[in-house]
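Summary: Need help interpreting a holo structure output

Steps to reproduce:
1. Submit the protein chain below together with the SMILES for molybdenum atom.
2. Request a joint structure prediction with the ligand placed.
3. Inspect the structure token block that comes back.

Expected: a single structure record containing both the chain and the bound molecule.
Actual: see attached output.

Input attached:
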Amino acid sequence: MKDWMRTARIKSSEITDESVFRRRRQIIQGTMAAGVTGFIGSAAHAKALSQPVTQWEGNATDELTSEATATTYNNFYELGTDKGDPVKYADKLVTDPWSVVVDGECNAPGTFTIEDILKPHAIEERIYRFRCVEAWSMVIPWNGFALGDLLKRFKPNANAKYVAFETVQDDNLPGMSSRVLDWPYVEGLRIDEAMHPLAFMAIGMYGNVIPNQNGAPMRLVVPWKYGYKSIKSIVRISFTEKQPPTSWNMSAPHEYGFYSNVNPDVSHPRWSQAKERRLSGDTSGLAALFSAKIPSQFMNGYGEEVAELYADMDLKKFF
Ligand SMILES: Nc1nc2c(c(=O)[nH]1)N[C@H]1C(S)=C(S)[C@@H](COP(=O)(O)O)O[C@H]1N2
Ligand SMILES: [Mo]
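--- attached output ---
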């Protein structure tokens, strides 16, 4: 076993029986082969997901969260602040056509259709633990490709110290009339974080085209950071020299830092981050609020892999 997989393993009681995984695998392959998608997406999307999906060796072995839960208990404030709003208003988000602007400190900037972005990538399945700052977590099989593979295509130059991301802004999205955040939703990573092999761009989940409520057509997944770093429905990627502003940091700088690494030792000012409620199996989001808490892991369990990124940093200061 790779070191990496050892880290991905947690308490033996939470390791799902191997046969369950084999079964799941077959289901996914069956779905892919048939090119069937459970959600409506663009043709490019469906096509990208109809290719064989490569299993990734670092996959978490925790029991999966059910697809029903992961696609109905969401945070996507552009669609509303209740956990049930994103699925309820999902059809307000128009994802086809879609284009992404890539600009800033790079030698190959431009405006790209989602088809252009998806085309050259082999699609992987990555089962990642996903930990929200509100202290609930899920285990989700995402489909997509390494973020770094995408970013390299635009040839970031030596001034590119950070990568900024921006979500679509559209007056038809029901949550955007609320002033809860400054729109558009923005996020950022340091360039070495963005290039780290664990950072992922998701275009699907559970073998299906990613549903709108989860950030169609393309959203970030940064498994060692709190969920809010994983920005949805991306329309702009900018390479910057300075640290870019991020939505939650701007709204409450004492509560949300730039780094936002999962850290049980650094409390949120209003609650502890030491434990989390896992939404596993078919537990609905609501039922999970009453489920037992499990200890949270440093860097969400990916500490060994990402330690090098933060070697000389005081993580209490850079939270
Ligand atoms: N554009 C945008 N991206 C977003 C959010 C949002 O409100 N708007 N919410 C974030 C938060 S707080 C979390 S926990 C995750 C939730 O992702 P999920 O609904 O797919 O589980 O998305 C993140 N990305
Ligand atoms: Mo979150």
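--- end attachment ---

Reviewer comment: The radius of gyration is 18 Å. The mean pLDDT is 87.
Status: needs-info
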